[in-house]
Amino acid sequence: MSAFDDLLAFQRQTEALASVAGRLVWDQETVMPRGATEQRAEEMAAMESVLHERRTDPRIGEWLEAAQPRTEAEVRIAELIARDFQRTAKVPAKLAAEIARQTSLAQGIWADARANDAPQDFLPTLDNVLMLMREKATHLADGGDLYDALLDDYEPGAKGDDIAVLFDTMRPRLVALREDVLGADAQPAALTGHFAHDTQIRLARTCAAAFGYDWARGRLDIAVHPFSSGGWQDSRITTRVVESDPFNCFYSTIHEVGHSTYELGIDDDYAFTPLGRGVSMGVHESQSRIYENQMGRGRAFTGWLYQRMSDAFGGLSVTDADAFYATANRVTPGYIRTEADEVQYNLHIMLRFDLERDLVAGRLDVEDLPEAWNARFLRDFGVAVDRPANGALQDVHWSVGLFGYFPTYALGNVYAGCLNSAMRAAVPDLDAALARGEAGPGVEWLRENVQRHGGLLPPRILIEQATGAAISPEPLLDYLETKFGEIYRL
Amino acid sequence: MSAFDDLLAFQRQTEALASVAGRLVWDQETVMPRGATEQRAEEMAAMESVLHERRTDPRIGEWLEAAQPRTEAEVRIAELIARDFQRTAKVPAKLAAEIARQTSLAQGIWADARANDAPQDFLPTLDNVLMLMREKATHLADGGDLYDALLDDYEPGAKGDDIAVLFDTMRPRLVALREDVLGADAQPAALTGHFAHDTQIRLARTCAAAFGYDWARGRLDIAVHPFSSGGWQDSRITTRVVESDPFNCFYSTIHEVGHSTYELGIDDDYAFTPLGRGVSMGVHESQSRIYENQMGRGRAFTGWLYQRMSDAFGGLSVTDADAFYATANRVTPGYIRTEADEVQYNLHIMLRFDLERDLVAGRLDVEDLPEAWNARFLRDFGVAVDRPANGALQDVHWSVGLFGYFPTYALGNVYAGCLNSAMRAAVPDLDAALARGEAGPGVEWLRENVQRHGGLLPPRILIEQATGAAISPEPLLDYLETKFGEIYRL
Q: Which of A394, A462, B216, B223 is the most exposed place for a label (fewest CB within 10 A)?
């Protein structure tokens, strides 16, 4: 065996163990008995301990030194292993353990503070987490930008300054669109009624099948917060059911099918290597968003869904396909990111991105965060935040140390805009298929141009190669202005 | 930290990892997508590799050398860790790997041979597995008995010679009882009808609750071969549904509740130590059997079940509780161990026990096994085996190297007989409770006297301490003769 083969064999086993740890998380969120939390914590800690030991195994350094990769894929595998190994090596074990411990505690403190609307109960803890993450970033940055060092975990190669320029371009048009839409005379009706749990699940399965979900390599379960989990031969999705709001179930399902088919669409040869998973959070989100929004919430697919829902629920409060399309894309004011529509979602992200960059750079003190949040929210959304749980306390991310993660949601939307533009040009009959409940031609194009590559190509190169154009916010903004301009008759 | 604390901390993590591996097996048999077999095999292999490395870690020997256990529990923990460490050390790694490889292949070859009724396709493979297991036994036995060395994995401390004496005492009475029962005039009717899947599951959950199954620490799923999985805070059960035979579902459920509540009943302080699981296969089976048979198939509980089933299925083909009791305990001729009733089950085990002892001792050649099986079956059951799939090919055990496992099933029945006798004396109102669908008083007695001890006491001491008497086949045989004598009016 060559050094590269040794390295790869070791890595494959590490990836298999990481896959097992991921399966435990799925289990915990879907089927685990409620009394098993303490046991599961010990099991997860044991797995993490084994994984940490393997990821810092000094043999990796020796193998990398001696490895002579022979193909493009092998070169990239060695590069990605080296990248992770070096990043892990830069962070002192004691600091990594302290971060794990503090963020685990902080998550509970955050949940209590949010429940009690009591920011003062959480801010000292957040300050502590931020301090630890800045320390980690300092180790990782080698004198470079701290925020970029953290961002690199989620969107490798992206830079905070570039994202800031991108977002600053987008913000005025999104703020204007938001104002126009909410001020328009033509306001779509809400869907009202009772939508039985089992019927929703049955239709959610039909939606997943419409988007090509491979049931031989996946399954659908219920979770409080929908997520997808796993890859290669076993990528599972979850959804939730709100009996007054069936869109929640169907579009959560389609969103997770997007994440899941990305993983399932990766070349089998890359399984259990660093190429065998989505290349970045942004690209991942581009897949879930293009399934959910550009395809799932388009006029063609909602026309099909309107029929299916009418049949399944025996009549709807909205009685024609056009009105249903508008209802499925209804924009309403709201404080909460996770409930936001296509028009407002990115504004939520930009707010968090700017604030977290300021926090990491030391330009904003944690104690001033709620006020800064509220001022910015008023500026971008035209509304004052009514209570902390609807403001700076709403997201779990910062409590668990996820600084640098938020922008990948909006990057995903930007990528989805670019990909949608190219996909529509390449697959002119896509809407005709979607009107029949068949996303297949779109899914195929995405698999061929994005998904199958897994981690082979860096995010920017991947998207630009798929679209034949530089990444730009224009396609997304044009799409949003056209779509919502039409729905709201602007 | 003392050497013992170091040893225990290491062991806890190993146990947590083993628990994760067990959870993967549960996942595979219940919820895993069917296309994930290759991935799961790699995940399991990775877990096994980590576990093997930990179990042979030389530090265990050093810690054991320096350990100064302070309590009875610590002494036993050190003893059990030492026992496993020494056993693992005795088997060369190359042989262990070869056994893993060959038995994995053999299982598939066995399944094909059984499907095709073609023993000649399997016997050379079995010969190879037997050779490897004899080699392993030679390493383990230190010049002692080969069969005992294998048996020790499943029923620590038991000896083949003692079991042979025990079984030889039991056989004549069981053969006689079998003949009397099958020759009796009073033959109970079979239950006929269609029993809907969902109703069976609902009633299975009611049965599990009647036997005190803790839903906060468990769950019920469907599996091809019912099993239970896990312990401490998370012990799950499975059952199967045959729509023409509801007893299959209900008694599989109660059987697995017996296994599962044993694990859940162990003292919490023993969790993730060698004391935190059932002490032997025989004791485990004693719990599942006493739940299923002595309590579940008794007149009191079947009276309650008769009412529940009549209500749930809207009338039954058997129309009074007495006849239902007889039907639930119906004895019919059959070749298959897993379908056998209380009267015939142990005869199936004794046949296998004698044959596998002869195989391991070299007194019987594998090529002569089918003929020896058939001759013995004719002798004990009075019927000639009609085809190999109903004879020597019926069980998976030998193909995967499980020599020494079979007798634990019958030992479990013997223990259950002893425990039932003591439990009935200690809990005189148990039948009154069972008639109300409440096994609680019996379950409590078993928890207090057997289950809570986990691995603290060796099997024989545990049972003798619980019953206040030496282990004997008499209580089981008396119970069977009384029960079936009454049902069959002998």
A: B216
Q: Which of B35, B42, B233 has the CB atom closest to A16's CB atom?
A: B42
CA distance A308 to B389: 49
Give the length of chain A. Answer: 490
Q: Cβ separation of A46 and B13 shorter than 8 Å?
A: yes
- Rounded to 5 degrees, φ, ψ at B213 are -65, 135
Residues constituting chain B? 490
Neighbours of A100 (CB within 10 A): 16
Task: Tell how strand B228-229 and strand B236-239 pair up.
Answer: antiparallel
| % of chain A at pLDDT higher than 70 | 100
Low-confidence ranges of chain B (pLDDT < 50): none
Interface check for B29 against chain A (CB to CB < 8 A): the answer is: no
The 3-state secondary structure of chain A, one letter per residue = CCHHHHHHHHHHHHHHHHHHHHHHHHHHHHCCCHHHHHHHHHHHHHHHHHHHHHHCCHHHHHHHHHCCCCCHHHHHHHHHHHHHHHHHHHCCHHHHHHHHHHHHHHHHHHHHHHHHCCHHHCHHHHHHHHHHHHHHHHHHHCCCCHHHHHHCCCCCCCCHHHHHHHHHHHHHHHHHHHHHHHHCCCCCCCCCCCCCHHHHHHHHHHHHHHCCCCHHHCCEEECCCCCEECCCCCCEEEECCCCCCHHHHHHHHHHHHHHHHHHHHCCHHHCCCCCCCCCCHHHHHHHHHHHHHHHCCCHHHHHHHHHHHHHHHCCCCCCCHHHHHHHHCCCCCCCCHHHCCCCCHHHHHHHHHHHHHHHHHCCCCHHHHHHHHHHHHHHHHCCCCCCHHHCCCCCCHHHHCCCCCCHHHHHHHHHHHHHHHHHHHHCCCHHHHHHCCCCHHHHHHHHHHCHHHCCCCCHHHHHHHHHCCCCCCHHHHHHHHHHHHHHCCC
The tens digit of pLDDT for each residue in A14-29 reads 999 999 999 999 999 9
Instruction: Please tell me whether residue B279 adopts helix, strand or coil conformation.
Output: coil
Q: How far is A103 from chain B (nearest CA, A)?
A: 22
Q: Sort out which chain A residues have CB atoms less than 8 A from B32's CB and list them.
A: 234
What residues are paired with A239 via a beta bridge? Answer: A222
Instruction: Tell me the residue type at B290.
Output: I
What pLDDT was estimated at residue B337?
A: 96
Query: Chain A within 8 Å of B211 (Cβ-Cβ)?
Result: no
Residue B472 DSSP one-character state: -
Decide: residue A87, CB within 10 A, 0-12 exposed, 13-18 middle, 19+ buried.
middle
Chain A residues with CB under 8 Å of B219 CB are: 31, 33
pLDDT tens-digit profile of A178-187? Answer: 999 999 999 9
Asked if A165 contacts A473 with a C-beta cutoff of 8 angstroms, the reply is: no
Q: How many helices (H) and strands (E) does chain B have?
A: 20, 3
Check: CB of residue A358 under 8 Å from CB of residue A364: yes
Inform me whether the C-beta atom of residue A214 falls under 8 Å from chain B C-beta atoms: yes
CB contact under 8 A, B17 and A47: yes
Please name which of A397, A395, A392, A348 lies closest in space to residue A369, comparing C-alpha atoms: A392
Q: Give B23's contacts in chain A (Cβ within 8 Å).
A: 24, 27, 43
Please state the three-class secondary structure of A65-125 as a single string: HHCCCCCHHHHHHHHHHHHHHHHHHHCCHHHHHHHHHHHHHHHHHHHHHHHHCCHHHCHHH
Tokens of A281: 């959070």
pLDDT confidence of A1, banded at 50, 70, 90? confident
Report angle CA A119, A124, A125 to the nearest 5 degrees.
Answer: 95
User: In the prediction, which pLDDT does A150 show?
Assistant: 98
Q: Token pair 């779109």 is at which residue?
A: A442
